[in-house]
Write a structure and sequence with these properties.
The complex is a heterodimer of chains A (about 550) and B (about 400). Chain A is about 45% helix and about 15% strand. By secondary structure, chain A is α/β, with parallel strands linked by helices. Chain B folds into 2 domains: about 150 residues, no CATH class; about 240 residues, MetI-like (MetI-like fold, Orthogonal Bundle), CATH 1.10.3720. Classes of the chains: A alpha/beta (about 550), B mainly alpha (about 400).
Chain lengths: ~550, ~400
C-alpha cells in the first residue's frame, strides 16, 4: 500500500512539475531566444506548378527553417496546403483538429464559423501582451490590418489580414491582342462600342488573323467566374455617384455583382454571346482549358488579373503566343469601359490580403507570433522574393532588381515572388527599390507592358470606405453556396437568347436573394444603421 | 444446458442481441436522466443497439452453419450405420447426434472468425461509431465541441430540417435525385440483364470473352476521365460529334447541345452511365446463369422451344431471384446519390437538373461548413432509403420471392 502511495505521489509531483514548466516556459525567452527548442507548424500553399519545387522543403523553406532555429530556437515544419480549394481544405483541417499552428486562408467565413465552435484563438490579448516582441509585424503589416476584423463590441480578433503590397493593389485589366488590331488597321479601343467593333472585326477576319486555324478564333473569352472575368464591363454600368454606404450594403459579393446596375453589363455579355463574340463553350470548360487556348494564340481579348498574361516567365501566355504566332504577338492592357461619368472606374480593395489565424490546437502562441514577426522582417521578405543573385535576380545599374527565370534550378519560385512563403506580405516589398524594380519582376516580358498594365489597372481606382462592424452572421453560413450559385445564374443568363435574358436574369437574381443574398443585404444595412446611423434602402436590386 | 456448439452459438447470439439492446436502452435512460440530452441519448443508443445486433447476427449465422454441419455429419453417420445394417430404434432417433466441443469447432471455423474480424471492426469503427454524430442534425452547428455539450438547435432541434425544406436548392436537389435515379433505374437496370442474355447466347467462346472484356473496361475509368472525354466528344463547338454534325448538316447548323441543354444533358448522363456500368453489371447475372441446369434447356429444346422461348421460359425465370435482390437494393438507394458522377459531369449551364443531394451536402456541408444542415439532409436521405428498402422487400416477399431481409 505504501509503495503504491509513494508511486502515486511521485507521479503527481512529476505531473505538477511538467505542468508548471509548460506554464512558465512560454514566456521564457533568454536573449530573445527560447531555452528549449519549440516546434510549430506553418501553412504554405502549394500551387503544383510544372517544374516547380516542393514549397515545404525547397531552398526557401530551408532558409526559413534554419533562420528561425538560429534566431529563436524554433523548429518550423511546413504544412502543405493546396492553393485551389484551400477554403474547403481549411474546414477539413479545423474539423480534424489538424490545422497548422499558423494557418491562413482567403475565406474569413471559415475562420468565423469555427471561431463560433471554439476552434480559433482570439488574437487580441496576445497582440497586446507581446507587442514589444513583434516590431516587424507591427511595421510591415500594421495595426490597421492586425485589427481589421476586430469586433467593435467584443474586441475579439479571430484573424488578421495580411498586407497587400503597394504594387499589388491593382486588381483586374482588359487585355487585347495588339498585333491583331495592327493587322486589321484598328486603333486601340477607348470606348465600349469601339471594343465591340474590334471583337466584330476579329470575328469577321478570322482567316486573316489565324489562317488555317480560323475556326478556332475566339474574339472574347471568359470562364464561368463571370463577375471577375468581366468585372470592368459590369461595373461600368454602376452609377458613379453611389455613396460608400450603398456600395457597402450591396458589396457582399467580392465580384461586385450586387452593385446596382450590373444587370446591364450582363445584358451586354448576353448580346455578345449571341453575336458569337464570346467563347461558345466557356461554361463547359475550366480555367486551364482557356489558358491552353490562350497560349495557342486563338483568343483576341479577355479580362483577368491585372498581370495575368505576363505571369510565369517562359510559361506565360505572353511568351507562349510569341512562340505560337511570332515576335509581334502581344497582349496589352486597355481601358475602354467608361461609366456614366466617363471614368474607367475600377473598384479596388483596402491593402488587405489573406486571413492569418491560430487554431485552438496551437499551444505555442508566442513561438507562432515570433514566426510571424520573422516572416514580416523586410530582410526575410527580400530574400524570399528575389532569391539568390545571378540565379533568381540581377541588380541593374540603377539599383533595381530584375527577376530571371530560375527554370530547372532549385531556386525556382512556386508563386510569383514567393507570395505563399511571404505569408504576411503579398507582392513586391523591396523598400526604396520597389517602384523601379516592379516592372522588372516579370521574366521575359517587356517592362513597358508591365508598367502599362499596372497604370491601367490603377487608373480610375475607387476604394469603398471600410466600416467597422461586427461580423455579418448570414455571410458566414451562406457565403460559399451563394458564390457557387452566382456563377451558375450569370452563366445561364449569358448563354440564353436575347429575348429570354430579362426573365433568366431576374429569376436567377430572385433565387440568389431568397437563398440568402437578401438576408445579407438586410443584415449589413441594419448593422450600418446601428453603428453609423446611416439608412440605406435594401430593395435597390428588385425595384 | 447446451446440446451442441451450433445452438450454443445461437443462444449466445440471441443473448448478446438482447443484452445489447437492453444495455443501449438503459444507457439512454441513464443519459437522459443525468444530462437531459434526449437526442444524443436516443441516437447513441440506436447506434449501440444496431452494433450489437450486427455482431449477434454474425454469430447467429455461424451458429446456423454449425448446426447444419452437425446435422449433415449426424445424417452421414446414420446412413453409414444403416449401410452396415445397424438400425437405431426410431424412438431414439436424435435430431442431432454428435456434440462438437469448442476446441474442435474453433479449429474448424476459427479462420472464418478471424477473417470476419476485420470487416466487423471496419463496420464498428467507420459505420456504427460515427452514427452518434447523427445527433448533430438536431443540434447547433458545432462539430468541435463534445457532442453532448452542444445545445439543441432552434425549433426543438428541427431547425435544419425546416431550413432545408424551405430552401429551393434542397427541393431541387431532391427532385433531381429522384428524377435521375428513376431514369437510371428504368433505362440502366434492364441493360445488364439484356446484355447478359445476349452474351449467354453467344456460342463462339473466344469472341464472347473478348466482348466481355471490352464491356468491362469502361467500369475502370473514373468519372473524371469520362467527363473529360465527354467534353471533348460532345461540347457544342469543339466536340467531335458536333464537328461531324456541322460537316454533314452544314456549318450553319445549330449545335447538338449534349452538355449545355438541361434535358439533353440528362440523357447524356444516363447513356454514359449505362455505357460505363452495364458491362460490369452483367457479371452477377452471368454467374447466376451458370446455376441454371442445362437439362432445362435440353428439355425445352426437346419440347420444341426456340431460342427466344428458351430465354423467356428458362433463362429469365432462373435469373429472377438475382434480379429481385438487385432491384430491391436499387430501390433502397433511389434517394441515395452518387457524388463523383454528377459532380464531374455537371457544368454551370445544367446545375438546375444536375445538382443532386450529395452535391447539396457537399456544397453546404464541406464548402460552407454547415455540418448540422448537411447531417440533417443526410439523415433524411437515409431514413427514406430504409423505408423504400423495406417496402420493396415486403413487395418482393408478397410476390413470392426471397427478399434480402
Amino acid at each position: 500500500m505504501k509503495r503504491i502511495l509513494a508511486l502515486v505521489l511521485t507521479l503527481a509531483m512529476l505531473a505538477t512539475m511538467g505542468l508548471f514548466s509548460v506554464a512558465t516556459a512560454e514566456d521564457e525567452l533568454v536573449d530573445g531566444k527560447f531555452a528549449e527548442t519549440r516546434h510549430i507548424t506553418v501553412d504554405v500553399f502549394n500551387r503544383y506548378n510544372d517544374g516547380g519545387t516542393d514549397p515545404t522543403t525547397n531552398v526557401y523553406a530551408q532558409y526559413i527553417h534554419d533562420k528561425m532555429l538560429e534566431k529563436y530556437n524554433i523548429d518550423v515544419t511546413f504544412n502543405n496546403r493546396k492553393r485551389w480549394g484551400e477554403d474547403q481544405e481549411i474546414g477539413e483541417l479545423l474539423t480534424a483538429k489538424l490545422a497548422a499552428d499558423v494557418s491562413y486562408t482567403y475565406n474569413y467565413n471559415a475562420v468565423y464559423t469555427f471561431a463560433g465552435m471554439g476552434g480559433i484563438i482570439n488574437l487580441a490579448p496576445y497582440f497586446e501582451k507581446y507587442k514589444d516582441l513583434l516590431p516587424n509585424l507591427y511595421s510591415t503589416v500594421g495595426e490597421d490590418n492586425l485589427y481589421y476584423q476586430q469586433d467593435p463590441d467584443t474586441k475579439e480578433v479571430w484573424a488578421f489580414r495580411t498586407m497587400l503590397s503597394s504594387v499589388n493593389r491593382a486588381r483586374i485589366n482588359t487585355f487585347i491582342r495588339k498585333d491583331w488590331l495592327d493587322k486589321l488597321g484598328l486603333a486601340v479601343p477607348t470606348t465600349t462600342q469601339e471594343f465591340e467593333d474590334a471583337l466584330v472585326a476579329f470575328r469577321d477576319n478570322a482567316e486573316t488573323l489565324l489562317g488555317a486555324d480560323a475556326d478556332k478564333l475566339i474574339p472574347y473569352s471568359t470562364t464561368t467566374d463571370i463577375g471577375w472575368r468581366n468585372n470592368h464591363i459590369l461595373t461600368s454600368f454602376v452609377a458613379d455617384d453611389l455613396n460608400d454606404e450603398t456600395l457597402y450594403v450591396y458589396g457582399f459579393d467580392d465580384r461586385n455583382i450586387l452593385y446596382p446596375g450590373t444587370k446591364e453589363g450582363v445584358r451586354l455579355l448576353n448580346k455578345w454571346y449571341n453575336m458569337d463574340l464570346i467563347w461558345k463553350d466557356f461554361a463547359l470548360n475550366k480555367q486551364e482549358d482557356e489558358d491552353s487556348l490562350n497560349k495557342s494564340g486563338w483568343i483576341g481579348a479577355f479580362q483577368h488579373n491585372y498581370d495575368y498574361p505576363y505571369r510565369n516567365g517562359t510559361d506565360s501566355i505572353q511568351a507562349s503566343i510569341k512562340r505560337a504566332a511570332g515576335e509581334e504577338a502581344s497582349f496589352i492592357a486597355i481601358e475602354p469601359f467608361l461609366n456614366d461619368a466617363g471614368v474607367p472606374r475600377k473598384f479596388l480593395s483596402d491593402a488587405v490580403d489573406r486571413n492569418v489565424f491560430f487554431p485552438a490546437t496551437n499551444d505555442e502562441i508566442l513561438a507562432s507570433l515570433l514566426y510571424l514577426d520573422f516572416i514580416s522582417d523586410p530582410e526575410t521578405i527580400k530574400f524570399l522574393q528575389i532569391g539568390k543573385e545571378g540565379i533568381v535576380h540581377e541588380v541593374t545599374e540603377d539599383g533595381a532588381y530584375k527577376i530571371l527565370p530560375a527554370n530547372g534550378t532549385e531556386w525556382i519560385q512556386n508563386s510569383v515572388l514567393n507570395i505563399d512563403h511571404t505569408m504576411t506580405m503579398n507582392g513586391l516589398f523591396l523598400g526604396d527599390a520597389t517602384a523601379k524594380s516592379f516592372s522588372l519582376t516579370y521574366a521575359e516580358v517587356e517592362p513597358e507592358l508591365v508598367e502599362l498594365a499596372y497604370n491601367t489597372a490603377m487608373d480610375g481606382a475607387r476604394i469603398v470606405k471600410k466600416f467597422t462592424l461586427p461580423a455579418i452572421e448570414a455571410e458566414a453560413s451562406l457565403g460559399s453556396a451563394l458564390a457557387d450559385f452566382r456563377d451558375t445564374w450569370l452563366s445561364q443568363a449569358i448563354v440564353c437568347s436575347e429575348a429570354e435574358f430579362d426573365s433568366k436574369y431576374d429569376q436567377g437574381l430572385e433565387e440568389y436573394l431568397i437563398m440568402g443574398g437578401q438576408e445579407i443585404i438586410d443584415e449589413r444595412a441594419e448593422k450600418l444603421q446601428q453603428y453609423y446611423g446611416v439608412e440605406i434602402p435594401t430593395d435597390l436590386l428588385t425595384k | 444446458m447446451f446440446k451442441n456448439t451450433g445452438s450454443k452459438l445461437r443462444t449466445v447470439a440471441k443473448w448478446l442481441g438482447f443484452l445489447g439492446v437492453l444495455g443501449a436502452l438503459v444507457w439512454a435512460v441513464y443519459t437522459i436522466a443525468n444530462e437531459g440530452d434526449v437526442v444524443n441519448a436516443i441516437v447513441t443508443a440506436l447506434a449501440a443497439a444496431a452494433g450489437s445486433l450486427l455482431v449477434a447476427l454474425v454469430i447467429h449465422t455461424f451458429g446456423d452453419m454449425a448446426v447444419n454441419d452437425e446435422t449433415r455429419t449426424a445424417l452421414a453417420v446414420k446412413a453409414d450405420r444403416e449401410a452396415h445394417g445397424i438400425f437405431e430404434e426410431p424412438s431414439k432417433a436424435p435430431k442431432t447426434v454428435r456434440r462438437m466441443s469448442w476446441s474442435i469447432y474453433m479449429r474448424r471455423y476459427g479462420t472464418l472468425y478471424l477473417l470476419l474480424l476485420l470487416p466487423i471492426i471496419f463496420f464498428l469503427v467507420f459505420r456504427y461509431y460515427p452514427m452518434q454524430w447523427i445527433a448533430l442534425a438536431f443540434k447547433k452547428n458545432d462539430i468541435l465541441t463534445p457532442l453532448w455539450q452542444v445545445p439543441l438547435a432552434k425549433n426543438n432541434g428541427f431547425e435544419w430540417f425546416i431550413k432545408a425544406f424551405n430552401m429551393k436548392s434542397f427541393r431541387t436537389a431532391l427532385s433531381n435525385t429522384l428524377t435521375l435515379n428513376l431514369m437510371d433505374l428504368i433505362c440502366g437496370f434492364p441493360a445488364p440483364i439484356i446484355l447478359a442474355l445476349l452474351l449467354n447466347e453467344l456460342t463462339f467462346k473466344r469472341f464472347k470473352k473478348v466482348t466481355q472484356t471490352i464491356l468491362y473496361l469502361p467500369h475502370f475509368l473514373s468519372w473524371i476521365i469520362i467527363s473529360g472525354l465527354a467534353t471533348r466528344l460532345l461540347a457544342d463547338t469543339d466536340g467531335m460529334l458536333n464537328i461531324l454534325h456541322r460537316q454533314i448538316a452544314g456549318s450553319g447548323a445549330s449545335a447538338l447541345p449534349f452538355l449545355s441543354n438541361p434535358s439533353w444533358w440528362r440523357w447524356t448522363y444516363i447513356v454514359l452511365g449505362i455505357w460505363k456500368e452495364a458491362g460490369w453489371g452483367t457479371i452477377i447475372y452471368l454467374a447466376a446463369l451458370t446455376s441454371i441446369s442445362p437439362e432445362l434447356y435440353e428439355a425445352a429444346a426437346v419440347d420444341g422451344a426456340g431460342r427466344f422461348r428458351r430465354m423467356w421460359h428458362v433463362t429469365l425465370p432462373g435469373l429472377r431471384p438475382t434480379i429481385v435482390i438487385l432491384l430491391i437494393m436499387r430501390l433502397g438507394g433511389i434517394l441515395g446519390s452518387e457524388f463523383d458522377r454528377p459532380l464531374a459531369m455537371s457544368n454551370k449551364l445544367v446545375t438546375d437538373v444536375s445538382n443532386v443531394i450529395s452535391i447539396y451536402v457537399y456544397n453546404y456541408g464541406l464548402k460552407s461548413y454547415q455540418y448540422s444542415l448537411a447531417t440533417a439532409v443526410g439523415l433524411f436521405q437515409s431514413v427514406v432509403g430504409v423505408i423504400l428498402l423495406v417496402l420493396a422487400n415486403t413487395f418482393a416477399n408478397r410476390m413470392g420471392e426471397r427478399g434480402i431481409m
